[in-house]
Amino acid sequence: MTLIPAWACNGGFVIHADSEENCGDFRRSVQKIVPQPMGRLQVIVAGSGIGPLIEGFATRLKERLDRDNASDIQDLKRLMEHRLPLFYRNEVANYPCPDENKLHKFIVGAWSSVTKDFAVWAAPYDMLIPVTSYELAGVEYELYNYLAQRLYYPDMAFSQAILAGLYLLTVAEATSSFVRAPYRVAVISERGIEMEKDPNVRAITERLVAYERRVNALFLACADTSIAVPDFEDLIDDFKTTASALHRDHIDQQASRTSFEELIHGGPLRSVPGMVGFGPRGYQVEHDRKRLTEARQNFRRFRERARAWEESAGTNPNIVNAGDVRVIGCATPQCGRVFFGKLTRVEGSDPVLEGTCPKCGKEYRLQFADLT
């Protein structure tokens, strides 16, 4: 079994999945949302039901779309709706397992590299229905549907949908033997299909757990008329202080995992606010209320200059000093992608420049001696 939530957001969609798959008396961990190139499309085919049959269906789907060099997301929709009745009538019907285990539901996401169109559908039967709010596939107990209904709101931001889905999965794992971490998160927008990094997923999940108990305590206190108003105000002040300190620490921790490339280009997976300053320890997020406006303006100017430099830099394989920022030209043959690295200076040790080429994936960790 499994639980796969999909959410419609302002500008796209977010799909989550756990990693539990049951095989009779055994279980294994599998990646259930993996973007695949199919023709000129990027496609996610996820679903609840019999794992090997779902994998086989996706494989045959890819073979046909590759052969047709499909570039329209509607080609995927038409092909799936043509093949799903055959899938249920042949593969599912003849699979050697009890009938109660033959229920299937697909969550399908697609993006076209040609038209930049994208969509997410749910297929509870043999038709693909556009996701306009949220959809669940798998262990659709009323508890999880009720919770998803409470968490969802129209035009929610990508970051909020990511949080909602991960919170739903943590509740499901705590209450069902069919849902288990690690979790995966896919974001679908005009930029394509992007996967959230596994360390970020784990960090977000831990943050949710840290806040939940504090929020629940304050929620109960709000409706508790036996608490005097001054005492309630003290509770709110204490919550504000604790939650603000936690939030500040979590932003700083996330910033330490965020590359310059992600800062500059942003996108749906942006997880650090755009008020970053640059200093002797690389970059850091500004938290002081009085300095926020200046920090935002400075970062906006920096981003504009960085993008302009990147566009004009060509394929220079050398490391270039751009003020407080270091820019790396990937030295991998046939790549040459110019991207931004994070330079960190720590007292008592040599500076280190770190970065990962977003084109070929080559990781760089360069000591000070390499920078001279």
Structural description of this entry:
The protein is an alpha+beta fold and 372 residues long. The protein has 3 domains: 3-196, Glutamine Phosphoribosylpyrophosphate, subunit 1, domain 1; 200-256; 260-371, no CATH class. Helix content is 41%, strand content 26%. The strands form 5 sheets. Strands 10-1-2-11-12 form a 5-stranded antiparallel beta sheet, with helices on one face. 30% of the residues are buried. Mean pLDDT is 83; it is low at 314-324.
Please specify the SSE layout and strand pairing.
Elements: E1 3-9, E2 12-17, E3 20-23, E4 26-29, E5 36-38, E6 41-48, H1 51-68, H2 73-94, E7 105-112, E8 118-123, E9 129-130, E10 134-138, H3 142-151, H4 158-175, E11 184-189, E12 192-195, H5 198-222, H6 229-256, H7 260-265, E13 276-279, E14 282-285, H8 292-312, E15 320-322, E16 325-329, E17 338-344, E18 352-356, E19 363-367, H9 368-371
Helix pairs in contact: 1-2, 3-4, 4-5, 5-6
